[in-house]
Amino acid sequence: MCGIAVCIDMNLITKRVKGTQDVLPSQSYKWQFVEKLLSDEAKLCGYKEIRTPVFEHTELFNRSVGETTDVVQKEMYTFNTKGGTSITLRPEGTAGAARAMLENAVYNDGLPIKVYYNTSCYRYEKPQAGRYREFHQFGMELYGTQSPSADADLICTVDSMFKRMRITDLRLEINSIGCPTCRAKFQQALKDYFSQYKDKLCETCLSRLDRNPMRILDCKSPVCKQIAEDAPTVLDYLCDECSLHFNKVRELLDCMGVKYTVNPKIVRGLDYYTKTVFEFVSDSIGAQGTVCGGGRYDGLVEELGGQAMPALGFALGMERLLSLMEALNIELPEPENCGVYFIGLGEPGQKEAFRLTREVRNSGIYADCDICSRSLKAQMKYADKIGARFTVVIGDDEVNTKKAVMKNMQTGEKFDICLDERFFETFTVGFLK
RNA sequence: GUGGGUAUAGCUUAGUUGGUUAAAGCGCUGGUUUGUGGCACCAGAGACCAUCGGUUCAAGUCCGAUUACCCACCCCA
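The joint structure predicted for all components is written out below.
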């Protein structure tokens, strides 16, 4: 032990940071399966992957997510570089994608722009079920179309992703929060309404009254809930254009057979949302039940300094999705087991097992051999444990005669194989049987 | 930031009204006559009982604090 180690709290070395998770070897296949399913579906819809840095200039998030939001005010991992610039680990995926699109003038490739991403995000929150400080979002972004068919198409895409995963437990809730013009009117109406009950509202709602009155609609306190019953509804304040847009979205969803409920209480916590907003919500994974959330953000690109460009998108919480699949007992295809395990005995046998393993691997089959110098018995045991379909024992005899026996581990059947140039021929006969 | 719950081996847990050397299952490693796995049997490794302090002749057990984890509020995916 070196002297320094004594002074260090070993928990700092052997414990993961609060709010982070390890995806262990026995679990990673689930992530891979879901990631592939999502990106495959995105590709089918014409989306291409975009990868942006984990960190960005802090100003980007301040501007896009919104200075007054909780995310910006208290949840960002912000720090100064040695050069003195303020950097922030991305708290969500939309801002980075929008920035990259603008910076690289991707719109010159033609509109609409369709991108998807699958990235880690960081928020300094108190962890609980479905909420981590490092979490993963799969998201899709669509730029350059104001048509309601884009909204419907996007929602429909998410819907079909969940259907592909055989998830039935989610309900789709949609709403429109209008454009800045009609939303301002609505917010004023809310303020006027709730101001009458200033003495009854809970403390948090009182603070929300100025900051974000729409949040009061969502409060769980019974008193606030009661008051909110008769509060003005967004949908009554939508301007003609927003109203028409929302109706068209609904019409298209109906037409596609996508089931949803209109929930006028859905509010997004990020400033950039306009018009259509939606959530896919579950009751099976605890209090943080929103597995996927998204909507339209027509003002975002302009807000970031680009030419006005309508946009929309969604983000899907990977941890929540996986935990939902777990809760619903949805079985995912497990990784392929070892095809053949070569048991090497003695120096020449080990060498030959080593060579054959490589050869089989080169042909695209999962093969393995001993790298621990274990006994025959231990190697057999190990082969069984990793679910090897076949084993081949290779010792001095096999090396000398260039012949070996391949055993089917399930049936116990045995086949003769040659280790010379006829290896593949003889190996394949048994292997495919 | 505010609450509630939990803390014994890698995992799941037992541990009596405080009383010898803290127990089991699973898992892990090895063995059961020389070159064929699973099953069974045997053996081994593995726990400063989260940490610090207090009460007591005596604390895994009672009390307090701290820390970590889990859950909820808040907020969001």
